[in-house]
Amino acid sequence: MATVIAIVEDDPDQRDNYSDVLTAHGYDVRAYADKPSALAGFESELPALALLDIMLGEDMDGGFDLCMELRKLSPTLPVIFLTARDSDADRISSQRMTAWDYITKPVSLEFLVARVHALLRISEQLQQQPAESTAFTVGALELNESSMLVAWRGQPVNLTLTEFWIIESLTRHPGHVRTYDALSDVTRQGLVERNTINGYIRRIRNKFRELDPQFDRIQTVHGTGYKWERDPE
After folding, report:
1. Are residues 110 and 155 in the same domain?
2. What distance lies between CA 65 and its chain's CA centroid?
3. What is the CATH number of the domain that holds 39?
4. How far, in Å, CA of 37 to CA of 70, rounded?
5. Domain check: are 121 and 213 in the same one?
6. d(Cα 58, Cα 13) in Å, to the nearest integer?
7. How many structural domains is the chain composed of?
8. Of 70, 104, 128, which marks where a domain is finished?
């Protein structure tokens, strides 16, 4: 059975171009022109990946609304924003919604197909990973993958989904360095710059320090990445 890709794009020519090239590469495409039709489609059949324009007709943030609805249906479904909007504010919003990629128009159709291939491959690898314990503790930290909850010294830490994934990656192997490339993969956002990873880490540290001003478990390994420091013996 072909992999289902959803495209939400109000421009009919662009919608047809994306649909045609993805269909030619063997995908089963569901194309929508507006938010209401896309929502109805998602409720009846969840795609394996969604391509979303941000501005849909007169709806300035229709794509963002759709992404939030998709996150309710699947926290890990790959979402690519494909848009003419190129502001830092929009990019930051997409990251907060845990979109996997943000591509500005015009886009090469060959590049678009390559990104879809790559993100679906990452998604499949994540689904095929052997199951590990869904709850574990590392010193004063408690983490539960099933509920996606983190607690520090018994107090819940209010993390976004991407921040949770980063903490989960760091604490699975305390004392081991997680490189920038490894943490980029963890975000499920495709190509992520080092400054973006640094920003995530800064926000995570601040959230822990709101609960514990002495928090120092996340250590910087300059030029390489980060590690979760083992608790002192």
Report:
1. no
2. 16
3. 3.40.50.2300
4. 14
5. no
6. 18
7. 2
8. 128
Give the three-state DSSP class for 202: helix
With contact defined as beta carbons under 8 Å apart, do 217 and 139 qualify?
yes
In a domain, 176, yes or no: yes
Residues 97 and 40 in one domain: yes
Note every long-range contact of 122-125, with CB atoms under 8 Å and residues 24 or more positions apart, other chains counting: 122/78, 122/185, 122/188, 123/48, 123/49, 123/76, 123/77, 123/78, 123/188
Question: What's the pLDDT tens digit per position in 81-130?
Answer: 999 998 888 888 887 787 888 999 999 999 999 989 988 988 887 676 55
Answer for the pair 200, 166: CB distance below 8 angstroms, yes or no.
yes
Nearest CA among 62, 64, 72 for reference residue 34: 62
pTM over 0.70: no
C-beta pairs of 215-219 under 8 Å, 24+ apart in sequence: 215/152, 217/139, 217/141, 218/170
Domain limits at 8?
Answer: 4-128
What local confidence, expressed as pLDDT, does residue 191 receive? 66
Question: Do residue 15 and residue 116 come from a single domain?
Answer: yes
Q: Residue 113's pLDDT is what?
A: 94
- Report if residue 89 sits inside a domain: yes
In a domain, 233, yes or no: no
Using CA atoms, how far residue 101 sits from 18, 52, 93, 213, in Å, is 16, 10, 12, 34
C-beta of residue 150 within 8 angstroms of C-beta of residue 137: no
- Would you say residue 188 lies in a domain? yes
